[in-house]
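User: What would this chain look like folded?
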Amino acid sequence: MRTLFVIGGARSGKSRYAQSRIEAVPGALAFIATAQERDPEMAQRIAHHRADRGPRWIAYEAPLDLPEAIHLAQTQADAILVDCLTLWLSNLMLVDRDLDAAAAALEREVLQCRVPLALVTNEVGQGIVPTNALARRFRDEAGRLNQRMAAAASEAVLVTAGLALRLK
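Assistant: Here's the prediction, encoded as structure tokens.
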């Protein structure tokens, strides 16, 4: 595995799948979190994910500067798990960052990464069309980002109901 792109819906098992694939790599592991503790429920989710990882894991928080975090993590770990791209995208949108420039920087870092890398993301385009402009923009931007990262990855997997389907 060089770069693994894992996509699925909410509670599909995508994070668990990506973590198990990265844990198969010997040595130190990096977990790059894009989530931010903005409310008690999110804090509980983050705590659950932290408890699920063992001492081999080095944690990084990158709500905005994901390419930089990947660059740093590969100097300190033998494999990297990023969870997740859609939270990163929403963080960028909230602070009005240039999304195309951010995606290009991420793509460059993904292609240059020297250690196995797993990218987790949500599939958001298979549901109904959102009723507001911001939600439609997020859905469209997530679709573009997911296509770009899937193309850059050496392997792409769709996870649904805990089952993995290899796409690429």
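Residues 133-152 form the longest helix (20 residues). If you want, I can go into more detail on any region.
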